[in-house]
Amino acid sequence: MRFVGLLVVVLLVVACGRKPKPQTTAPYGQKITLTDSILTLGGSDTIRFGRMHEGEIAEKPLQLHNEGSRPMVIRSVERTCGCTTLEYKNQPLMPSKAHQLKLRFDARGEWGWQLKLLKIYLNESTEPLRLYVEADVE
User: Fold this and answer.
1) Would residue 4 count as lying in a domain?
2) Cα gap 117→11, rounded to integer Å
3) pLDDT of the chain along its 138 residues, tens only?
4) Which of 136, 118, 120 is nearest to 128 (CA)?
5) How many structural domains are present in the chain?
6) Does an H or E element contain 2, and which?
7) Is 112 domain-assigned?
């Protein structure tokens, strides 16, 4: 009986000393980097939702990071489908700072492999930042 009590104490001490597992995903979602060249040349990135069921609505957090030399503002967003929605702050994004965005994909009425496009126009940009939204809807 004494051995069992000692074993319980040892297990409690070992369990309390464990370090938490490191996170395998970024806490703020996929990082999208903005640079000065994106304002003139444009750029692109792909956001993958993976497998979804028809009728499902999924959200992904994104982190928009300004690595350019001047503040950037999202002027407008064009989308090829009403099934995508981008929530963003309509405030200047200062150099070396980040904004949180939320991308939503609504799979109602969709079937099979989907590739949708969001064009994000920034202040003074001539070409948009293209975000491709990819999902496989079953």
Assistant:
1) no
2) 53
3) 654 444 444 444 444 444 433 333 456 789 999 999 988 899 999 999 999 999 999 999 999 999 999 999 999 999 999 999 999 988 999 999 999 999 999 999 999 999 999 999 999 888 999 999 999 999
4) 120
5) 1
6) helix 2-16
7) yes
Which residue type occupies 83?
A: C
7 phi and psi, to 5 degrees?
-65, -40
> Do the domain assignments include residue 2?
no
Q: Which domain holds residue 131?
A: 26-137
The domain that holds 92 is classified in CATH as 2.60.40.10
The per-residue b/e assignment along 63-95, b for 16 or more CB within 10 angstroms, e otherwise, is bbbbebeeebebeebebeeebbebebeeeebee
Asked if 79 and 118 count as a contact pair (C-beta separation under 8 A), the reply is yes
User: Which is it for the CA torsion 117, 123, 125, 126, positive or negative?
Assistant: positive
Cα 49 to Cα 34: distance, rounded to the nearest angstrom: 22
Structural domain contains residue 102: yes
| DSSP letter, residue 125 | -
Closest Cα to residue 109, out of 83, 133, 72, 132? Answer: 83
